[in-house]
Amino acid sequence: MRLNALILLSALALTLTACGQEPGAGAAKPGEDPRYAGLDAQILKWGGDLEQTNAACREKVNGKGCQDFEVACKGERPISPAEQAHGVTAKVVAAMTFNGWSSKTADYRPASAFAEFAKAGNAWTRSEAKPVNLATCAAY
Q1: Which secondary-structure segment (H or E) carries 6?
Q2: Those residues with Cβ within 8 angstroms of residue 114's Cβ, 6 or more apart along the chain or in another chain
Q3: Pairing between strand 107-120 and 123-128?
Q4: Would the N or C end of the chain have less CB density within 10 A of its end CB?
């Protein structure tokens, strides 16, 4: 199981790297908007959490419930005055696609999840989000 988690995190890191972003937290990288420093690490953590909590990953085959995690999109969201008053400096919605095992079909089936990330100070928080367009992250 530990090996599966390591493989999952490595795959997510490669996905983010392929999109021109490196995983990790901390200070902004050269040319990166400091408002989003640490977001990639939070998205990686979310991918790992999905394997443990998403309904599509509950059924297991060979100890694995989901595979092929991929960040489909990330999109900036407006920050409300109330959120600004609470110190929120960045807000992003993200969509992740993956394949979950189905014992009914004895095969992996496509699934997706959506989350909103908000940054206040140097800390990101994550909450579930309504589904968005997987190509653009625009709200339906």
Answers
A1: helix 2-18
A2: 93, 94, 95, 96, 128, 129, 130, 131, 132
A3: antiparallel
A4: C
In a domain, 139, yes or no: no
Phi and psi at residue 24, to the nearest 5°: 140, 160
Residue 138 in any domain: the answer is no
Task: Please report the beta strands in 36-106, taking only residues with DSSP state E, as ranges in sequence order.
Answer: 66-76, 88-102
State the total domains in the chain.
Answer: 1
Other CB atoms within a 10 A radius of the CB of residue 66 amount to 25
Q: Give tens-digit pLDDT for 39-98.
A: 999 999 999 999 999 999 999 988 889 999 999 999 999 999 999 999 999 999 999 999
> Taking Cα atoms as reference points, which of 120, 104, 98 lies closest to residue 46?
98
Q: Is residue 105, in this structure, part of any structural domain at all?
A: yes
